[in-house]
Amino acid sequence: MKRHIACLALLSVISTGLLAGIAHAAPSAESDVWASLKQTHFGDRPIARGAGVIGLEAPVRAEDAAIVPITIKDLLPADGKRRIDKLWLVIDNNPVPMSATFDFSPLAGRADIATRVRVDAYTTMRAIARNNDGKLYMASRYVKASGGCSAPASKDPDAAQANLGEMRLKTREQTASLGEIQDVQLMLRHPNHTGLQMNQLTRLYVPAHFVRKISIDYAGEPVLNVDTTFSLSEDPSLRFSFKPRAPGELSVRVVDNRQMRFAGSLRIEPMTAQAATP
Amino acid sequence: MNVSKLLSWSVLAALILMSPVTVAELRAFEVSEITPGVFVHQGRIEPMSAGNLGDIANIGFIVGERCVAVIDTGGSPRVGIALRSAVEARTNKPICYVINTHAHPDHVLGNNAFTGQDATFITHEDYAQALGARMQIYLERFSALYGQPLSADVIVPPDRTVATTVSINLGNRVLKLTALPTGHTNTDLIVYDVRSATLWTGDTLFVHHIPVLDGSINGWLAIMQRLRYIQARRAVPGHGPATVAWPRALKAQRGYLNTVAEGVRAVIDRSGTIEQAIDTVGYQTCNQWLLFDEYHRRNVTAAFVELEWE
Q: What ipTM does this complex have?
């Protein structure tokens, strides 16, 4: 049964690829998958074009379908009158298209996100932003990559298992200026197994094991909450921003689908930054 | 092997061509005896395609006084059949071993041409796990690529595995098999023919063909440091000429991997992104390698996600 589904997916990849190749353009932004998802998650609310509000960068053709780097950019003016308080990341043709949601507090400063995702079949990818006035905006990209969800779990499964749970937090600048937006990269050693990776010699699927929630606080106040799925690549990496107003501790808590918990923190001092302490 | 790329390019090629390639089209299948008893078929330096039927890796066999060891079997059942015919044309001794140097499709999809003959299939100890995880994808993609279904029995599980080293005797001819830690892949096995001092490297060594990283860049560089001390008269690389000078042939690959590693580290050190690394690192090496455009960016991607944890 599984094979059949995969074969159908492959055929659709081929036909979509041909169409895309001939037209030299992404297919219509209104796929059937999206029409259904849109109804489920947003009902009849209008979604405007993202220009000037939200941008999405992704490679046209990904080098590795299991590691497709994407960047969601907050394009609102920095005058603070409007801000993005929620983002949805949708990958239409992945097994679970609603790949991640991001809830930003004002402490986030800016709704910029960079991460890496799995892409299972040629697909439209979407970032939908909600402004704090409730209006929705969308940016989309068409990405040619396939097999990212059923690809082997790891180049080195033994090493992946041995390192599970190791966390790093890095700031872009070595010095952190209070009141200014800081860029942070969160890295977690986690297989983020999809549950779709079968070992045909043992006839067993590698059980699903993936990050569900990432909660990021600063000095006890929420900055960013992420709900996610196995669409994030192995060893999830998340770049985000936050705006420290006073010295404090940036703290990260992660829960996966097996209720395993991981935590790390980074002390933010004026003009200094220290290494993460898992 | 870059399977996503293979899908995107080659499936389209298969659809357009739509004509099954026959054994006759592999009649140009040649083996050269690089030293007495050591026969190499040089694969084309191309991605796997409907046109080449996966005949892109260096494969071959070593003949002892009692029997023959086949080393890698090519990227499709047809290449495997062509290799078996080449063995039969050169010797009437039986095939007692089939050695797979790692679990990539261009080296193993010819395996079932050698089943049913009492040959023992030997691999690295992690081969079955790695190939099992990739098998479904390989079967689907290469069935589509070649325009004809590959059955699951093209994947032949090993009868015997190597955790560290194993010696096998072909009759007054001993082969030393050494399992490597993760480098090109996590299933690499090298073969040393003691009589001729020939080192069969599998894809631990690429020559002219850009190295393809599917394991660990640091691991691969460390392995090369170790292997250079092997006193071999010649080596058979996984891709490139049938025979090359050893250890001199390591130099270009070491240079490339060091360039990629250093370039990626520099991007990571300034908090750059994986996209910036893909766009900027290693392009000064592009004239030194064939298939650079096919594999380089993927190598940088793999190196980045490894090295950002240093």
A: 0.82
